[in-house]
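PROTOCOL LOG
Step 1. Enter all chains and additional molecules of the complex.
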Amino acid sequence: MRSRQDLLSALVVAGIGVGSLSSALVSPADALAQPSTPAAGSPSSSSSVPDEVRALVPLAAQELQRGSEILFKGRGAGRFDEASTMLTAAIDRLSPYGDVLDADGRAVLARALDYRAQCRFLKGQEAEAEADFVLLVAAEPSYSPDPTNTSRKILERFQKIQTARVAYVTIQADPQEMEIIWNGRRLGSSLPPDLPVIAGPYVLKAKRDCFGPVEIDGTLGPGEKRIVPVRLDPVARGIRFETRPAGFDVELDGTIVGRTARTEAAQPGEAQEPPGALVVSCVAAGEHRYVLRRDCFEEAKGTVSVEIDFVDRSPIAFPRISPVRQEVFLTVESDVPGSLVRVEGAPIGTVPVKDFGLCPGRRSVEVRSGPRLVFKEAIEFKGSGKVRIAANRRPLLRAYVVDRAERHGREALDATAAARIRERVRSLRGFNVDEARDDQLTTDSKAIAESLGGQGGGGGDGSGADLALLVGRTETERGPGVRLSLITPIGQVETRDCSEEDGPCVEAFFAGLQGPWPATELQSGLSVVPSVSRPGLRVVSARAGATGAGVKTGDLIVEADGRKVEIQSDLIAALDAAVGDVVPVTIERGGSRVEVKLPVRWAPRIAPPGSAPVPVARILATASYEISILPPGEARNAALLNLASVLIGRGEYRRALDLALERSGWADGVAGAAAAGSGRYLAGRCYESLDDSERALAAYRKASEDAIATFWEPDGLPVAPLARVKALSLSPAAR
Amino acid sequence: MERGNSLRFVPVALLAITAIAAQDPGEALYRVGRQLLAEGKIESALKKFDEGIAAAPQGPFADDALLAAATIDYPATALGDLGRVPAERIERARPRLIKITTDYRGSDSAPAATYRLGLVRMDPSNPHADLDEAFATFLQVARLYPQAPEAAESMYAAGECHRLQGSLAASAGDDAIVVLEHGSSAAEPRSRLRLAETSAILGETTLARLLLAPLTGREVPASASGAKALSRRASALDALVVRSESDRPDAPGTRQFDVAVPPSANALKVGAIAADAEGDLWILDDSTGKVMKAAGGTGALEVLTSPAAEDARGIVLSHGGGPYLWEDRAVVFPDGRRFEPLGSADEEEEAEPLKRIAGLAPGPLGAIDVLDAGGNRVLRYGRDGALKRVVATLEARPAALASWAGTLLVLVPTRREIVIVPPGGSPAIRSIPLRGAGWSVESPVAITTDSLGRIYVLDDSLGTVHVLDREGKRVASIAPAKGSPGEFRSPTALAVDGAGMVYVADKRQARVLRFR
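Step 2. Run joint prediction.
Step 3. Record the structure below.
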């Protein structure tokens, strides 16, 4: 399709100046020289032109150009037939669409008829020429031939025909902007006085948004001039919302209709932001609900009643609304010093972050130590005030739920079962959960295990998960079910098949996953068991710390940190979030409720190698994770020892050495079970089992030098003398 | 697959057997075997087990059947059971156990079978017994099946192998594994006690006392006799360690007279005495040849019906606590059986009865070492009474024999020395002289040891008990002044209990004097 500029060029080449064309096309709204942009609220007259018709106009314009060239070159040369043929082609192309043509199209059609009439006059075919002028006036009543290119005689003939067929109307519009359709032809929204129209019966239709349409009919005699008043009555009204500050989204009846824009420039030194306003035009009469929203501000909402005022049509001015600013002051602490905190992906500082201002809403809080994820959670911040997050290290659990196609022997779950599992995974506490897509499952569980964090003694790539959960479909005796596998760095540790009907089976798996993690177990001084008679945890023993806080044996703990507790892991979750602090606990005692503040401290705890009740997977995952993120010190030593203990318990001496005992970064000067001497002792134990007496002896001797190392609970036996005994047992004399 | 060593009665309906048989003949035969076993039809049961194994050698119950069959022949499950099964039954059980450990290594019967095989290889009744092999087998259990319940028992047994070989430190290493890594096992208290003892022997007395603390402080229910005895032994050992630390070589007064048993003099004719680890005193009444026991060392004397020997010359306690007596030519077992050892180790010569037995040392696995004063030898006899070997030959006439941790100590008065015979036997024999700077033993008549390996020598001419360390260095002495309540008038025998209490039998006073 040729552009409007192409068409102008064509007319210029044909010797028709833009100026002459403009004067010929008297419709000011549609003149080529004036963009035919309609007023707001009125559709463009050209916008209703079908595309196939619009495509004809450039072709007709070319034919007009060719015809006019032949006509003007051939003047006196007798080439009128040739020009007439070309012009007829243009006329035939456009005349069937006379009522729907836009201004450009009408201009081309009118000029083609004008030139063909002149050809016919010059050839002496006066009747045909006059017929063309009749058609021309019908197509464009306001058309005026170019007097410079048209002979006076022909001009007079035209004017005579035009005068006999044209009347003149002046439309007095109220309001001024409205769309006028005259006998089915769009005239636009802003019309000049004495607009030429075809005389005879007419139907005028007028319309405008927010106003009721009108239709007027009548008859005009040739040459008659008539004033036609057109008045539209309003049926809706605008509303002006003003807020301080600007920038509020305005929602009307559930639809966002705009945002309040600044009405004043910000003043230098002025703390308060400038106000803003939004005019919502054309709101129908009646009650409307509105809501004003902006991040960090209280939501403002209410109803507005729109009544039509036929006199005052200005928008309803709503009183200025100044919602209260809301801000949450976020404090983030972590047991991994130096970790970077990000909120919604943007860094806000390293821990501890204190009183970082934050707008309410659901925000993703992420804490990383280098590339390692320490903590990640989407947290709902509500209202104003201070919020404190203990972003303590948690293992990263990568969950693969196979739900599309079989992968590495795991059949796909159906959508319902997969959704149920995902829901349960998301509700896991104590982990940073990474939901992987099953198409990321490019390898089997053994390879997954090897990719988990801490593998190979170097901590992997530093960003891997600590353990993985692999869930797929299986067949059980009771029908289809799910196979849940927990994978740790030493392989698939726990697998459970549960039928789809057996919810408790799945729940038991996840509950086991969520139990206490010995390496990070918190010391509250409380031993509790779930009460059999009422929801809550019964205190079976309370030691120092807990007793100091006022907890007594026999108490029923019903809430911790504002949440109900029913099983141990509920309490552990509350303690986990309050290491080094206190956790508010609600106790029922003798029919009344007592609130106590339970202090929580962290103590590294080392599991003896092979200790039967130790949950292997948890220690392994936690320890390997902690090793990768903790700086040298007591906690890291403890994690190293826990990892070694698990591996030794499984008879994996070489890996215990590689992953833990011979790893660098053991902190010296740590007393107790986490002392380096304990590690040397276990190293000796491993070498001894690997029949490497020389290294074992060296390790035991080294351990015997650590005077402050003790073994794990419960005895706390000193390492040094036992290491001396072991060294003696390996000495050649003893053998 | 079934788990467990004991053969329990399993009520199985015949219909059920038939139904199972339709699916797995191995399992069905195994269950029938169990049923027959419960009914006491041993040979029939054995046959069914063998049929079951043959019918389904790869079946899930083949290992269970093998273990059940092996258990019929070799029911021993603990060190205390060793030496009780005849060699031919051991020979029948052994290949079955080996088959489980080789062909069914991954089965749930394997840990128990491997442990049992270790016992077989350690068993003195087994003609092929070998402590090194036994140790290796026990170690295999601990390494292959670290989570199995048998792992701790195996390490404990491995420690016992080391002890029998005289490797105390190595035994301590084994015990440390049990204590530190199998804290909740049944073997842990035993290992802990043994480790404490070894630590004290090796000079780690602080460690020893820390190890003992949970055992001595443990509240033991009256019904748990084994645990109670262990707790008493632990308390005694703790007291011994304390005593050993307070002993001073040049301060004889550190050991005080405590009490006389019986309190009044001339109440009985004391022949010989012995004291056990738990503090009980055993007295051989010379006039009746019967044995009396004073619980706790000072309680009322209880006369035992067995053993008894009119001509008994001495008394010694076995590892289990039962008294052995000996006469010039015979040994009387705790159950009253008499045994007259034959004396020649030379296969060419005809064996003759010993003529003068001067001492006896029962070994932990049922073997007995006999001091032949007539032939200046120490001879070792098996539980069956057969002479196993000559442990040591002496250059002069010996007078007394004591033992400690497999080491024999022979008193040779004429040379005023004690010959030390380590577990390994003759090549490492050495002697320690009974004299030192500022002290000497003039007339040694009796020797004994405490559980730390310290040597006690009774000198009747000086009226002194010398306490020597394992190298013969004097570390303490008991020399009651004349006229004092504990004075020696005619001391003839000596004993030390588990707590280090020293008992001296005084013939003239006809009572036993106890020193704390």
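Step 4. Note key features.
Residues 1-22 of chain B have pLDDT under 50 and may be disordered.
Chain B is about 35% helix and 25% strand.
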